[in-house]
Amino acid sequence: MSKYSLKTKLEAVDLYQRGFSTKEIQEKLHITSRRSIDGWINNYQQYGNRGLKKAFLRQDIVVNLN
Predict the structure, then answer these.
(1) SUPFAM superfamilies, alphabetically (predicted)?
(2) Considering all CA atoms of the chain, what is the largest pairwise distance in Å, rounded to the nearest integer?
């Protein structure tokens, strides 16, 4: 199970798009790592909502390794 829900990830991306810094998002949503937020933002920008789903990320990694 993912540490953070899809809802939380989408909320973080939404806050970022509304101008919040990653530090502000981290504090507001009680997220332990700003690197996680950066990753969610990048995945969302590249793949949309499906880029934030755990199953998609695992499949993408396997494809890139082959």
Answers:
(1) Homeodomain-like
(2) 39
Q: What is the pLDDT of residue 54?
A: 73
CA dihedral 57, 58, 60, 63 (to 10 degrees): 180
Question: What is the CA angle 52-54-58, rounded to 5?
Answer: 115
Which residue in this structure is represented by tokens 């920008």?
45
List the structure tokens of 6. 């899809």
Look up residue 65 and give its two tokens: 């390794």
**Tokens matching residue 29:** 């949503």
Task: Indicate the DSSP class of residue 10.
Answer: H
Per-residue pLDDT averaged across 42-56, rounded?
85
According to DSSP, residue 51 is labeled G
